[in-house]
Each structure stands twice: as structure tokens, then as C-alpha cells.
């Protein structure tokens, strides 16, 4: 007899507000290992807020959010750090460290985890080659374009092969060729077991790749893929 695998992410009646009207209302949702989700919704619908919840950048106003079976409202600072090491994040402002080179920025998560210098440099170079930045190893972020910074941020997020990857508009600053390559990278991670959540307004990719679509509307999340299959 087999038991159902516990979800990586579990939300039960989660509410989020910043003092005024709720941004997210009564969200109950489970995200499992080796799943891929597009997070869609109009500008200002709450996509970034939802991603910040999953990264523990903010706590729910009410309800229960569990990440890797840990209630985020009850974890210690030390536990939170350990959880975050299992999460790769790409936010729209990139969060690159200006005093580090491109190679050093990408290798930083492995350095934090105590990886050997030669191995983390090899891994960083390999992923930078994949995203088309093999000639930018020793450049500082200030010399890069917005699209290049985006790719550096993505390389840094995936280098540890995280259990959960959160990407907020990851193709917003690159051309279609690079965007397709990045989606292939996310797809590969998903096939290896990573739970991938991509927030996007780029309808072309949502329609092209046919992954699960979670749509935020009026503060609630609607599973559009499930809705479509039931029609």
C-alpha cells in the first residue's frame, strides 16, 4: 500500500493584507514535487505577494502556510535559513551584489552552502554558458543590460538545483530566443524533481507549454488547468 507524497507547499485558508483590503483571500492550495505552475493574473493582482509568501519574505495575515512540512509562522530564524537554502528565487529587481563579479554572484549560493571553490566555479561557469553569458564571468553587474542581469539572477537561482524554484517574470527582459532557452532550463529542472512556479503575464508561453495555470483574480487563486479539464 502506497501513501500520497506530502506536498512541498501547503496553504490552508491563507489571507494576506497590508493593513487595508486583503491582497489574497482564503487561499487553499498544495504544490508538489516535480510540478510546474504558471502564476497568472492582471498587474497588481497579487502575483509578487504570493511569491513573497512562498519565499517567506512575508508571513500570512491568517491561515496556515507550510513549506517542506514546516509551518512558516512557527519556524526559528535558523530553520528559516535552512529552508531558504532549498529555494531558488528570481525576483524582478534581480538582487545582484554590485561588488561581486557575475561569476561570484552566481557561485554565491554554493559558497554559502560550503561547496569547494573549484567545484562552485565550474558549476557557475557551466550555467552561465547555458544562459549565454559565457563571456561575462569577470564583469560587474553595473556593466550589464537588464536582460543580462535577469539571466545572471536565473543562473544564481538554479545553481543549487533547489527543491522549489520561484521565478517572477523571468522572461520579461529578454528576447524570445533566450526566453525559450530559459523555459527549457526550467523544464529540465522540473523533470528532475524541482517544483517550479513562474509568475508571468506572457500569455504566449502559458499557451505554448500547457503547464498548470494558477490564476489570481480578486484575491483568489483559480486552478485554470483543473477548471478547463472539468469542462
Structure characterization notes:
By secondary structure, the chain is of the alpha/beta class. It has a domain at 96-161. The protein has helices spanning 47-54, 77-84, 102-112, 117-130, 146-158, 176-192, 203-209, 224-229, and strands at 9-16, 24-31, 36-40, 62-67, 70-71, 87-90, 164-168, 195-199, 212-217, 220-223. The longest helix has 17 residues, at 176-192. It is globular. It starts with 8 loop residues before the first strand and ends with a helix.
Summarize the structure.
By secondary structure, the protein is of the alpha/beta class. The chain contains 8 helices and 10 strands. Helix 3 (102-112) packs across helix 4 and helix 3 (102-112) packs parallel to helix 5.
Outline type: globular
Approximate strand percentage: 15-25%
Lateral strand order in the biggest sheet: 6-7-8-3-9-10
Low-confidence stretches: none
Distance between the termini: 32 Å
Structural class call reads alpha/beta
* Subunit organisation of the chains: single chain
- What is the N-to-C succession of helices and strands? EEEHEEHEHHHEHEHEEH
Number of helices: 8
Number of strands: 10
Radius of gyration: 18 Å
Average of the residue pLDDT scores: 91
Percent range of helical residues: 25-40%
Q: Give a short account of the largest sheet.
A: 6 strands, mixed
